[in-house]
Design a protein that fits this description.
Layout: H1 3-27, E1 32-33, E2 36-37, H2 38-63
Antiparallel strand pairs: 1-2
């Protein structure tokens, strides 16, 4: 497993965790979590998942 593949997994898992934490905080009625708005954390989680997808896409293109 090369570094780009590992980076894709790390980015994807971090993004899912960040999205889940922000959604859970918002459903609990909190608008802020750790000094950040929950919407900002959700966007950061989505960005991390997209980064992971791009890493996986790069890995697939290398294998061609």
């Amino acid at each position: 497993m090369n570094a780009l593949h590992k980076l894709g997994w790390i980015g994807g898992l971090a993004g899912v965790a960040l999205c889940a934490a922000s959604v859970a905080a918002r459903l609990a009625g909190n608008f802020w979590l750790g000094g950040f708005q929950t919407g900002t954390l959700l966007q950061g989680g989505i960005a991390a998942m997209v980064f992971g997808c791009f890493c996986f896409l790069a890995v697939l293109m290398e294998r061609r």
